[in-house]
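CHAIN AND CONFORMATION:
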Amino acid sequence: MPSRNIVCFSYGQSPQQFLRCEIRSGLKPMPLKPSSCQFDWGGGFLLTSDRQKAEILCISDTVYSPDFAIINYGKTWRKNGFSCNSTTNGLTCTNGKGNGFFMNREQWRAF
C-alpha cells in the first residue's frame, strides 16, 4: 500500500495457495497471544486458498521487501486466486471462497 505499512506476498503451488499480509504497525487491538505461539504475534494474516478463515500470524521472519510493487488506493491486486482491495481506510483481502480479512492501523477483522 502507499503507506508501506501493509505488505502482501502470495506463494504456493496449485491447488494450495497462500497469501501472507503483514502490517508493520501490528494488529490493533492486539489479539491475545496463544501459548502455542513462540514467535512474534499479531503482525498480520495468513490466508489460504481453501481455508475458511484467515489466521493471525505467529512468525519469526517477514516477507517485507522495499522492492514490492505499490498498489495505490482504490486499486485491486489479484494473484493466485486472491484479491486485495487497497483503500484509504485499509486493506481487504479475500480468497475465491469469499473468506479473508480487513486491517488498518486501528482495527482488523477476519471473516
